Protein 1
Amino acid sequence: MAGYRLAAIPGDGVGPEVIAGARLVLDAVASRDGFSIDWLDVVAGGAAIDAYGVAIRPDDLDAVEACDAVLLGAVGGPRWDDPDATVRPEQALFALRGGLELFANLRPVTVLPALVPSSPVRPELLEGVDLLIVRELTSGLYFGRPSEQRETPEGRVAVDTLWYTEGEIRRVVRLAMELARGRRGRLTSVDKANVLATSRLWRKVVDETRPEFADVEVNHQLVDSCAMLLVRRPAAFDVLVTENLFGDILSDEAAVLAGSLGMLPSASVGDRRTAHGRFGLYEPIHGSAPDIAGRDLANPCGTILSAAMLLRWSLGLDGPAADVEAAVAAAIDDGYRTGDLVPADGDAAGLRVVGTREMSAAIVDRLGARVGAGT
Ligand code: IPM
Ligand code: MG
């Protein structure tokens, strides 16, 4: 029997609830298809600050690196939000992303037809939306140094550093071009080249990479107009590639198309391969949502769809990945909705508004497997 080792990092807020749902789904697929998953539980984020005084322990980072892939819920919350704190939950994310060299964050955005009424965007604009945001994840403003506040004779001054090497740009642009080639062959590179030196270098590197991918149609788009076009004609986009902060912002905006931030999965990958596929970190794009944490209200779909990406990218299990995606769509088609998916007009007639656990169970049921069966 094939066996895989996966790290689970529930984190904070709704993280543990959505991770529990995704684990049920992965365990159900494993028992249905006769492979085994050996789970490594890792404490990170605010939970690790409380337990160990750091956002993630170096030994845990090493243990995670030795796994085939990582499933992460969310980190952060008001308890650890002191702006002067030197230890912050988000440091766990940056240690994982940067430390494991996961330089490309893939955020696919599709619209399930049954969720069109859940989006505030007009239905005719949502037709045919199928885009992939490729966000650079290990450089830019998130990692540039200095990043600090200083006391000066003029008062407090703060500085962050926007830094990119051509190598950092090239590797993520190449991956985005490869992905575009496997899709509709269109790549939009998003920058702010009319203002930023890093963006002008970004544009040059994109243009230098183009000859390797002559079959991919490439265009450059300024980030401000891209933000507008994402709601005006979202169906026109195929793959977008952009630097870290632009990708962070544009992906939350694009999530509105899918009906809720709670629907969107993500995969963070680099070049490293394991025996089964590309090593990766999989997490929903929503945060820890402390306001609804621990109340069985969170939407587990983004995490479950992240688990599907894990099956595909890190374990090479394309069939089971597609089954998980189909099971999520089937549960939605059958009327299951977490609170965030109730239609924008508030009319839930004919729908079954459920919590995290029931939504996860409905998805497991639609995989055609009973959890624990056959193991
Ligand atoms: C995301 C999140 C994180 C980010 C936060 C929690 C630091 O917004 O994954 O998009 O900005 O990268
Ligand atoms: Mg974000």
Protein 2
Amino acid sequence: MSERAWLGADAASPAVDALTLIAEGVTRVAGFRVATVGLVRGNELETVAVAGDDEARSALLGARTPLDSILAELELAEHWGPLRFVPHESLPVDLQVWGWVPDLLPLEGPDAWHPMDALCAPLHSGSGEMLGMLSMDLPDDGRRPGPEAQRVLAAYADQATRAALLALEREQLAEQVRLASAARQIVRDAPAQLGVEEVLAASADALMQGFRAVGAWLQIFADDGLGTGRLVAADGTQVALPGRLVRTAERSARASWAAQRVDVVSREHLQAPALSARETSEIVDFLDEIRVGSLLFVPIGAAHEALGNLVLTRLAGAPGWTAAEREAALDIGHDLGRVVLNARSFEREHRMVEELRALDSYKGRLIATVSHELKNPLTAIVGHLEILQDEPTDPAVSASVDAIDRGARRLARVADDLLLLAKVGDPDHPVVPRPVDLADVVADVLALQEHSLTRKGIEVVVEKPEEPVVAMAEAEEIERLVTNLVSNAGKYTPSGGRVTVCLAVEGDEAVLECTDTGLGISAEDQEQLFQEFFRSTNPLALAQPGTGLGLSIVHRIVSRHGGRTEVESRLGEGSTFRVRLPVAG
Ligand code: ADP
């Protein structure tokens, strides 16, 4: 039986026009009052072209006959070449009459045409599939056709076969376009930033429309069990799928995916390879219960992994699932598989970001606590060291006291930096920006540092415009930022060098630049410069004391102000650090 597309008669189609011309030729040239062409649609034959009077046309056009009864009758036919003739006398008395029985009084004689006689030519594709049928009735002369008429009819049957093929191919093409666009829609409706749940919601409607289904069940397996399922009915009815059937679906999805197969289940179609007889009858009972006629079971997966299943349903009496639809459904199983993998990796990334965030916040709290706990005893140590340093003692003891003092002060600086790092990295304490005149901040910082810079033989230059450069910022943090940049410039610039601090307004940004003629930084080191605890790989730079926290503090301060940090540097030539902050006003 044909599995061809079913789309309903398309009276306007050129192929149907051609079939009508052929039927008319049969009436005119071969001398019959009525001729019809029917096309196979699922398990029925639909009459799409009729030549004859109005009565015949209105009785026959669009009529549908179960293929089974046609095939049963053809069993009784005499073969006249490609023609099949079923004489009324060979029909069983109880035969269910199909088609149209004209009101006609038969002539006398053995070759007289009887109203119950049937003459037709089944139309077959090259591969032997039945596509349709050319039928004729009521010969003009009231007689069964002789050899000449049979030859003419055979030629028409040949033409009709070609036109029927064309009509069906056209329909199939239209159907493929429809299904392909349904599939594309799914992929379109499922952008990468969706979780599995949203993908299900976005796909179900498109699938039902594309496949002309009344309902859809879409289930995506989870690593730890059956996962998420969603049942949707076109009319909005809420249907709960029994757990047993969900498990059956899960199991058979794995088998169907492995076999790359979709299955149809209905009262008429009780054999699905992946299902036992008991499972099939449970499913069919459930379909009866929700008044659904048939289902198309589609596995969803990617590569070797079955990821879920899609079930589409149609009402009883609706056309069956065509071969093209089943093929497209399997493709959609693949498309959905990809969409599910995307959704999963999105969810995984999302989870990872959350975990990293939690880890970061834990790290922040840990640093804050540890540095706080270090600060108190360090303050005590430094205080007592000052008392000891004031006391006259043995030179060896005082050298030790001085060494302890240097160590303690260094430790105190690290604790300070850590505390600040935790503070400027804490999202729960955002900046409270106020207008800050950057020239004032630079002047304050240089007032503290200029002395040691000039003592080292470093020239300090400030370049600023006439008008003030005012940033929206937290003054204390900006002061720390400038301190770190200027002290780095001094630290990593040998004597005889120069440090230039430059201020400017560029568009809506207040720009502060600190340039030195020092050691410079290699391109590789520049990549990691703002990471906590990063210290240069350059031995000359490493010879200077440092914690590797100064620039990460700078970077965090700038980021939390909504600004940007830039660095330009060449090893052996010098560096420029530039920060851009939102300008005030
Ligand atoms: P620290 O100076 O305490 O090591 P920073 O975070 O301030 O830590 O700087 C990280 C690294 O970047 C330093 O170890 C140094 O190698 C390099 N660096 C920073 N500023 C300069 C500069 N102006 N010139 C050359 N190298 C620099």
